[in-house]
Amino acid sequence: MLRAVLLLSLSLFACERRLAPTAHPDPLASIRWDSTPLDWSRPLPSTPEGGLAEPGYVGSAACQPCHKKIFASYAKHSMASTGLRPIESLDPRWLAGIFDAAAGTSVLHAGSGLRYRPVRKNGRYLIEEFLVGDDGKPVHSISEPVTHSLSAGSYGMSFYSRKGERFYQFPIDYYAKLGRWDLDPGASGGNFRFGRSLDTFCISCHSDYPRRLAGSDDVFVGAMPAGVGCERCHGPGARHLETLRGEDIVNPSRLSPLRQLDVCTQCHLQERSQARVGRHEFSYRPGEPLDAFRVNFLAETPESDRFYLVAHSDRMVRSACWRGSSKKLTCTSCHDPHVSSRDEPPAWWDQKCEACHRDKRCSAPKAEQAKEDGHCVRCHMRAGPTSMLPLVIVTDHFIQRRPPPVKPGPEEKTARLQSWSAFVGEPVAGSEMPALEALALAGEGQRDEAARRIAGVLPSRPAVPKLYQWLTMQFDQLHDSPRALAALVAMLRAQPDGSAALVEYARRTLDDDAAEAQRALDRALALDPGNPSALEAKGVFLFRRGQVDEARVLFERAVAEKAMAGAAQVGLAALALRAGKRAQAIERLEAARRSSPGDAWVLEKLSANYAASGDQARGDEIARARAYFVAKQGRHLSDATQWLPPAWR
User: Of 44, 277, 343, 646, which sits most exposed with the smallest number of CB within 10 A?
Assistant: First the structure.
């Protein structure tokens, strides 16, 4: 859950952050694009038996025989249990309690009008989505089974439903500190409903490295790790397991203070982060400078009363305590990484402060000291809501002598950034740094400055996929389809195996160059045969060419992989209608309605077929839903049906 907001920025064509077009004069007008054809002969990555794994990693269980005491202590740490886990592995009494406590309540997604509630029924756990009409009666209601959970320590828990090879997240979470259900951070803008899959970006800071499918970002092979394990901080353990020598494993306490800090910062600083060229989510190794793996950009001037969710390291190095320690203060100066912080009493934390401030007694008035029971952290490290997520209460690690009360609400945007490594005094260079900083500025809303800088670096053709992703979105907002396509092609040059880009490229070239579209879809499916977006897109491609039997096979595979595969369900419904198979058509139309509740074609076909089958009650329900949606949006056709050839409608 902690990384859900950041995950949205990686989605190729996410709508959560629609920005106004770049002001004129357009600094991108002078871009000259590479017009050579894409090379489809590049070898495909292969997946070894058992899944793609990081070399040298053996798993935390291998550490237990020699480190029993530390292993047992760390097992109680929240980091040890943050991974994706089957729902049946949770405490059944606790789980039943949080579901039952929500009875009679629901969470509204204001942007879409949809409501969500957790339901426990006949021993099963479900998340229900529903929409209420003006008369107070539901016009749409579906539910999906909960199969897995993902913990964010003591902050809360998100829930998933496994479908095929993927895990799809629900748009509501349970917030443990508040004891309530509410929207997932990633659903605060656009509503991903039941259609967003767990990917490597999200899981990389919630667990040890899972085995995965080469060429896919969201297919994992075998059992998922239970949480963050020993090797995330100590590095690959295979060599140490073989020799039992201390020098064959990383002991963070023997690293320099800055390298120690980087070990924690790999997950505890995710603000304005930009991936290095050639690095992936699991490629950081303890002991290397963090900005050599992923560059984190910090605001030049911090806000004293607002802070981002995952910014613990940023806030700490702002503190006079860090500067006064000659940059030797690290996370483990106060935190024992093998012991849960929740097991330490307030006096334990006071001792950490007093270790450096023995000669300085608290100067606050006695009444103020008494209000906080004399504990240092309660005054100097205020806890409060984060800038983007007011439901998540976090301790601010910016240690201030007189900190102001923590305020909710978004942080101020800035045009002045600096890299993490530069801030801590060890700048890491790289040819892609100007492009990465431009992207960070774009994320800050500094669009004209970002565009100006990007125009300056593009002639060198930096292999930074997100750079071209951003450009594609800019040109789309300017309704400049040729340049949007050119930027997308440039993205595929930088990342030839990006599944989302391949499918989007196929969709954009389908009408003008069907052969090119098919090459893109074939590559996407060769990389990941179960990719539901590629299966659906190629099914549409074949259907429109009259190859309906081949399309049927792909549509069947798509709906087996994704509950919200609306276009595939529509295609299957159309085929059943043409064949006169009314019961089968109704089943497919109902499935299509799940993904597109207000689609006029789906509702009209359902109404007609329920009437023909004599199911008056169900026909009346559909008629009421049709009337509601027509009043709200007119006769609207969703993406699930717009592709259908007129002869099939």
Answer: 646
